[in-house]
Specification:
Radius of gyration: 23 Å
Structural class: alpha/beta
Largest sheet: 8 strands, mixed
CATH class of the largest domain: Alpha Beta
Shape: globular
Strand content: 15-25%
Number of strands: 14
Oligomer: single chain
Number of domains: 2
Number of helices: 14
CATH superfamily of the largest domain: Glycogen Phosphorylase B
CATH topology of the largest domain: Rossmann fold
Strand order of the largest sheet: 3-4-2-1-5-6-7-8
CATH architecture of the largest domain: 3-Layer(aba) Sandwich
């Protein structure tokens, strides 16, 4: 098959959405398909990556990913460009309206020259690549359209009054994507069910994120018991209860005084109790490959925090899937009844506790500490974990396409 992928996040961007779409491109190509990618890039250029042809398209104003991460700064781009980007969004409710226009022209040429069978677009809270497919459909192009939503559909916040005038257009556009696509993808059953209920065709497939490194069956242990949190904190996602649990365990002398807590990649100020000042080490963000290396070789326990007050169901943190095959115990302060809890239980990869249950948090910390002290690892369900290799998850989609597109072509021939 000839496959075109349109995405605003792709290699070399180090974003969880990029890792997902990188895997689609890589494993489609390895399965023998001809893959072309149109992606947002720093310059207008064409390159090769993992056997795929990549057309990088520069946003005429500011790269959408750069803008979304650094909206509080005007460095490198200037105030005027930030102002134009803000107006572009508030008038069109599309963070990359001008980029979409450029990309549609390139996509049109690819469709005409390569006899494309499938177009895959992707987005989470943003819709730019999906909008490209809508534009191409309106121009009369025929292709099988896969819209990868990743997270649940999300309607933009109303920030300026002008947004109220066009919010209905945003909702209408989202519904058109749900209805006019041929297949929808998302990462968990609750979101799949939501998409199926709101789509005219009801064709929705669960394709999870995953890990893309060899499983680690032997485990290393640090000289001092080390817990690590990789990533950012937010107002509703903070380490306060984790710190409180550790502080109490130190006061109770259940933990040695020289334990280490690593916080890597957080940009938000956090409150570190005085009693933990000598235990907490804050380090800058690292590339994804380095984060995996740290997870495997430089920690004893991996900590994740997600507050139930965020009120979102069906959300897997990308880190959770990354951590599955590290052979390090995961402490996940999540909703035990949501999908992350189910995953940890079925893979036996760690412990799931509510973010506000201090006794339970203390208990899981001590379980992890005792594993470290005794140089032991959890009895992981490796057969289940292997299902979350990115190659295995992409295979789910490839198998679906092989069956359904073959059936569709057979029906059309008759």
């Amino acid at each position: 098959m000839n496959i075109l992928i349109i995405t605003n996040v792709f290699y070399p961007i180090t974003h969880i959405g990029a890792f997902r779409i990188n895997a689609f491109a890589k494993y489609f190509q390895l399965a023998g398909h001809n893959v072309t990618v149109i992606a947002e890039g720093a310059e207008d250029t064409t390159a090769q990556w993992e056997g795929c042809e990549i057309h990088y398209v520069k946003d005429p104003v500011i790269q959408q990913y750069t803008h979304s991460c650094y909206t509080n700064t005007t460095s490198n781009h200037g105030f005027f460009r930030h102002l134009i980007k803000a107006l572009e969004y508030r008038v069109t409710l599309n963070n990359s309206f001008l980029w979409c226009r450029k990309t549609t022209t390139i996509a049109r040429n690819v469709l005409l020259s390569k006899n494309i069978d499938i177009v895959l677009t992707t987005g989470g809270y943003d819709l730019p690549s999906h909008i490209n497919a809508l534009m191409l459909k309106r121009k009369g192009f025929k292709f099988y359209w896969i819209a990868d939503f990743r997270d649940e559909p999300h309607y933009s916040e109303i920030r300026w009054h002008i947004n109220k005038l066009c919010l209905h257009t945003w909702k209408k556009r989202t519904q058109q994507i749900l209805d006019q696509s041929n297949l929808l993808l998302s990462v968990s059953k609750p979101i799949v069910e939501q998409l199926r209920a709101n789509s005219a065709h009801g064709n929705v497939l669960e394709v999870c994120n995953g890990y893309d490194y060899p499983e680690v069956y032997d485990s290393s242990f640090q000289q001092r018991f080390t817990m690590t949190y990789l990533g950012r904190f937010y107002p509703e996602i903070h380490p306060d209860n984790w710190f409180r649990a550790v502080k109490e365990l130190l006061e109770e002398r259940q933990l040695p005084s020289d334990i280490i807590i690593k916080i890597i990649g957080n940009h938000e100020p956090i409150k570190i109790p005085d009693a933990l000042k000598n235990n907490v080490i804050e380090l800058p963000a690292v590339p994804h490959e380095r984060a995996i290396e740290i997870s495997i070789n430089e920690t004893d326990t991996l900590v994740m925090i997600y507050s139930a007050t965020a009120n979102r169901k069906g959300i897997y943190s990308g880190k959770l899937l990354d951590y599955l095959a590290t052979n390090k115990p995961i402490i996940a302060m999540y909703d035990p009844d949501d999908v992350a809890g189910e995953l940890i239980k079925e893979t036996c990869a760690g412990y799931i506790v509510r973010h506000d249950d201090i006794p339970a948090i203390k208990d899981t910390i001590m379980k992890s500490f005792n594993l470290w002290k005794n140089k032991e690892t959890l009895n992981r369900n490796w057969n289940k974990i292997i299902e979350y290799r990115r190659s295995k998850q992409v295979e789910i989609l490839l198998n679906y396409l092989e069956t359904h597109l073959t059936d569709k072509n057979h029906e059309q021939s008759h």
